[in-house]
Amino acid sequence: MWWIVADQHAPQKPEIAPLAAGLRSETFPVAMNPDGKTVNAKIAAFIRTAEQGFYEPWLSDEQINHIGQVLIKDEQTVTAVYVDRDDAAEAAWGSAHTQVGFDADHPVGTFLDYDKTLNAGGPDGPIDARLITVVTVSPSFRRRGILKHMMTSALARAVEDGVPVAALTVSEGGIYGRFGFGCATREANIQVDLGEGHGEGFALRREPAGRVISADPVKLDEVIGTSFEAFHNRTRGSIGRQQTYQKAATARWNPEDLSSWNRKLRAAVHVREDGSIGGYVTYRHEGWETEPSTIRIGDLIAADDQSHLALWDYIAGLDIVRRATMRTAPLADPLQHALVNPRSYKVTGLRDLLWVRILDVVQALEGRAWSVDGAFRLKVEDTLGITGGSFTVQVDDGAATVTRAAAPDAPVTPAAGSAAEDHSAELPTLQVSVETLGSLYLGDVSVRTLHAAGRLGETTAADVERISRIMDLSAPPFCATHF
What we know:
The protein contains 13 helices and 20 strands. The chain is 25% helix and 27% strand. The two termini are 39 Å apart. A seven-stranded mixed beta sheet has the order 2-3-4-5-6-15-7, with helices on both faces. The longest helix has 15 residues, at 146-160. It is an alpha+beta fold. Helix 1 crosses helix 2. It is globular, with a radius of gyration of 25 Å. The chain folds into three domains: 11-183, Gcn5-related N-acetyltransferase (GNAT) (Aminopeptidase, 3-Layer(aba) Sandwich); 187-352, Gcn5-related N-acetyltransferase (GNAT) (Aminopeptidase, 3-Layer(aba) Sandwich); 361-471, Nonspecific Lipid-transfer Protein, Chain A.
């Protein structure tokens, strides 16, 4: 290792923001009643409140219990903010709140977090990630510190647990940058013309090897697990999946009624020439009133590119179908370039998906992929005080060694006699906010682009070119997991 470091600082827990008077918060794991089949009233009220926050219908007890069982399997932790009824009774609106509002078990703020892994492309495989979801605040109790309190509490727990990154998906894009989250992956809505009467339809340049067979969704449990594991390990940007995916892909979870089977779901599996399974696809027909006749792909997970193309070829060969749509396609999709007529493939929309918050610069960057060997200085500003400071990044053989200086402006001293001793002062410097570092982390956006956007502080154009060669990656990341 090239560098002598004066001090090594661990990430610091952020200051937990207070709640306004009359509010209190609780954090607790999801648990079932002693019967093992039903959730308690407090969890049921939490789930109903969260679902209403996203404009979903009032769920039945049976649906609530199904959700509760899934939350338990993923070991999800609940944070809820409640109105203190005694305090509210003294407010002018208190009696009305008691008369017409929801009962005391219903929170005015909801928040869930749990752990999965994130593939950042590093040499040691996926890293731990704290996932955040189901964040809602009652419209009646905005501007009272609820979101800031729940978020800083969750980030403090993640830092205490030694998790290097946090991640979430967002309904509104302007909310989470202030907490240090940066947009890190995107996905595409696509429409693929399959049959006659729509240009040249669907034709691959080369027939994929192996065979795709129709499958009973109910029998896919093992296939789903092994296929996603292979996909996850090979796909930079992939996040580990929660139990809802297993239930949805096996038809046990109907999006229109969580307590019933999805009887419209169909599935197929790609079998390689050696007999092993390379991936699966789930889909449904959109109905005969849809023109042209359309298949909607729910999930397509492949362990390799040949399986990816073979599953698409199967969809294209379905009878009386002229179009396929998919809402979760990668930006760099090999299908588009495998088609004889690339215009059969249309991108109908793009949107951000995964937002990443770096909690430990050293762990996170050492778990990341890099383009070429080299070294640079990194200065990170973190308004929450979790992981800001000055670092050096040295990449050798595709793996990074990251060290932290004693202070943001402290000089980095090369080891005596090292090859870098005469060149340490010449290292290029990248100056970013922790939000911007989150956007750079998985390689969705380049150093050059963020420099052009004015987001790299005092980083010079010459330094941008040198750092870009080291940090920018050749293909965009892809996350196939919503949460």
